[in-house]
Amino acid sequence: MKKEKFGNKAGKKLQLFSDFKGVDYAHAPSSVSQSRTVNGLNMVRSTVGKVQKRTGYEYDSHIWPDKVNGIHFLQLGEARICLVHCGTGFYVDGECIYSQAANSASTAVQLKDRLYILDGKKFVFFDGTTVRAVSSEAYVPTVWINRTPGGGGKKYEQPNILTDKCKEGFVADGQTNMYILSQAYLGAAAVSATVHKDDGTVQTITEGNGISVDRVAGTVTFSSTPPLSKRTDTDNVYITYSKATGADKTVIDKCTVISVFGPGGRPDTLFLSGNPDHPGREWFSQGDNPVFFGLQNTDLAGSDNSPVVGYSTLGDKLFVHRKDNEGGLNILVRSCSGGDENKQSYPVVNALQGPSAVSAGSFVNMANDALFLTDRGVYAITRNEASGNHFTQLRSFFVNPHLLKNSKLNKAVAVSYNDFYVLAIGGDIYLLDTLQKSFVADKEYSDWQYECYHWHIDSDIHKLFCENGRLCFVTSDGKTGRFYTDYSNPLCFNDDGKAITAIWQTGDFTADVFMNNKNIYRLWVVCDTALRTGVNVKVQIKGVWKEIFSDMTSARFFQWSAIQWSKFTWSTDKTPKLMKQQVRIRNVDKAAFRLENASLNEPFGLYEFGFEYTTGSYYR
Q: What is the CATH number of domain 13-53+501-618?
């Protein structure tokens, strides 16, 4: 047999692919880096530099009877309770616990041990057992303190938008029975009073049982004179009454956007917006008191023609995302300016240039980036460590050409899963890998990009969430799907019983001289081993794909507990396997290679790929 020569004398060279990253839909096939793929369908990082076929998913047996408007989680100690908003109901473990919700999208945040939920109809909270209106537990503010029975005193807290009730504190003189309130023409709700006595006891007195009320004059008369206060500056009598604040209580109920922020970035204050009657206006609660929205705790920054889409937080800044109507300055930056203990203020301290967010469901904070979807791709709010200034940068450059073709960007939903920002639109899922940052010289306004992966499933994803360490979704027809997590189990590699097609395709190989003929003689593939796995290799020549190599046995290993006779092997070697094949591809100007596995219940892990080639005369 003739011995083939190799090396410089023979003119043979090697083309190797070993550092696998993500997809690249942004460059022409001839310009794509060797590390990236022009078609990496249903592949994902296994370890940095290596890729594998994604796992499949299974459906729950339960199908929701109506549109799923929200999936929210309440963390109570070690317990994590899932609250599902379906149709007009809220469900826990399949049982409806509230049935007056709006049949529209809801959003929620957790503050302390409650979920606060907006659906545009009623502002409610979930405590792990029941769902109730926030107004049912509205804080009753003390609007005046240090009053004498005849008046005076000083203003203390604001009236609460959520209730007409308020109270006033008095320093009793031990002689006067009639106390004059700061307000006349009181509301019809019963008036009550509490008297703090010298012995430390507190007496509660109700209207008709110890006090009489003149609503027109705004006076309260005690049948027994309240005792003298121990100190002239300490209130010992509190009178609670109702008086219309003039505020429209539905302004809070109609909101659809919510976030948590506070002084120094401390998450203790609710921020609300999205009221269709006041699109650009925001309301915020009292710090550490989510049932108290002061009458003056509201602001309109920018134009009311620019609705608030969502919020992001980074450190001690709150970023208000508005629809594109502010001359490009679509993100307003709020910071707490302090104030007294009863009234914080959150003025706008800056505005960021960049595209506006297009989907309320796309906001996710991770890896020191506040990520969100725009009509130019996934952007991040990030911080310059040297100057401390914030700015926006593109992060999805590599998948943008495919991502931005979708006409339903406003329906996109996103979630943080492990180290990935996962964005779903219809049946397409895009994963931005926060462990892999790439510096792209030809993309302005961005220091770096995330490596990206692209999956596709045969379902219309309506909601995304994570539960028990699994990436989950709800389809538009009410099915709940859950991706498997066990990459060592072949039975996890199917989409509800259907095979998954996983592809890794190189860019166009043109060698060092694009105008010369190329001859390819042999190729090598290193794949991860599995109980059942294999690889098909195809080559594209003059636009036509043909299979040149298939090995569905070499990378398997034997295990008694998982015998499948049709794919039997005696090998017990579980290390990555080298597979090789002689090929004969002659006189081509370029070639592209596609490695794929489309078999049911088969993993596929790619470690290395390469081939031997020579170059010849000019291509004709």
A: 2.60.120.260
